Recover the amino acids of this structure.
């Protein structure tokens, strides 16, 4: 299914220079999935349609891609701010990339594979739920909920 990206944080797209993603990778010490790099470069701060995904025995929704660029007015949607919030509460190797409508985080999980992170949901209680074996599988599995 083809994904349409809708404005969320800003009213218009905010393209991202690949050097900003390179800096994020250096800061985190990981290699971001190529599909994620492609998508966030043109759609940071936007929400996908369809947006539903399965987690545990139910489903949730992918609300918005966190922004990688610096915008102090949009700090609640900042990938860096989200990482600061999560870091003390989750194991090393978990990095946020998106939010759900309930304020939970979709994250890359590099704990088992530094080359191919899984996608997990980190709940408000900081419980980690598996979602998909890769970002590509996750994006391909989004559906209308």
């Amino acid at each position: 299914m083809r994904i349409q990206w809708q404005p969320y944080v800003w009213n218009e797209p905010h393209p991202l220079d690949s050097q900003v993603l390179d800096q994020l990778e250096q800061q985190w010490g990981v290699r971001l999935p190529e599909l994620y790099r492609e998508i966030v470069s043109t759609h940071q701060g936007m929400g996908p349609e369809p947006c539903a995904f399965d987690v545990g025995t139910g489903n949730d929704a992918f609300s918005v891609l966190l922004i990688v660029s610096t915008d102090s007015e949009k700090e609640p949607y900042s990938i860096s701010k989200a990482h600061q919030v999560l870091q003390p509460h989750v194991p090393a190797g978990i990095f946020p990339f998106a939010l759900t409508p309930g304020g939970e985080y979709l994250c890359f999980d590099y704990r088992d594979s530094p080359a191919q992170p899984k996608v997990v949901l980190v709940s408000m209680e900081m419980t980690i739920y598996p979602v998909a074996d890769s970002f590509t599988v996750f994006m391909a599995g989004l559906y209308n909920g």
About this structure: The chain has one domain: 4-140. The longest helix spans residues 18-28. The mean pLDDT is 93.
